[in-house]
Amino acid sequence: MRSELLEARRATAFFARKLAELSDAELDASTRLPGWTRRHVVAHVGYNARALCRLAFWARTGVPHPMYASPGARDREIARGATLQAHALRHLFDHSAVSLSVEWRDTPDAAWRVPVRTATGREVAFSETVWMRLRELWLHAIDLDNGARWDDVPAPIVERLLVDMVGTWTARGETPGFVLSDPVSGFSAAAPAPGGAPSIRIAGPLPALLAWASGRGRVSETAGLDVTGIDGAPVRLPEAPRWL
Predict the structure, then answer these.
(1) What was the pLDDT predicted at 197?
(2) Whole domain around residue 112: which residue ranges?
(3) Number of domains forming the structure of the chain
């Protein structure tokens, strides 16, 4: 757990740096997420930390305290946050990140194992919130579209993200069948089609695989992927299934 908390601090510092590089006027620019400006991304990341603090309360006290009252409440909160003045938006990120760090620091050992529910209703141990925060910080740092690159994401985080994505696709049964692999690192993860074997092999560097699998990658960022059918014949790179 200590190593994961350290990774969360590093991810927080990276997002904070990319945010600090933006002028107040640049917060109005678009991002990699359709319909969201940088303001929306920063508001979401800030309120996400507050939502995880609510799960910390749940884990410590045993009293259910959901991340959000409802999906609609979450969306409205982000929309309102995006209208904050620039200094208030920056303060939201800074203050919420510190609050979450303090909550994690003060969480008793036994509370890390307490089951809580995510915003999607999935039951997880409270310890899972560290990973939930890590993926939010790294992916949304890239969403800011302010120079963060896919290869900025540490390789172990990339691999875990890819396994997470593949597991979600498999559970939903929404994939025609993929095998993702990086010949250099030896990483491999398969998402078989429902009732069948994988039909498409996508191979290449970890950053390019994540760019594709996240649905956020640009053509130039996924161009190095080698895509073939099971028979080895080249095929067109398909669109990645929805993840979250």
Answers:
(1) 65
(2) 2-148
(3) 2
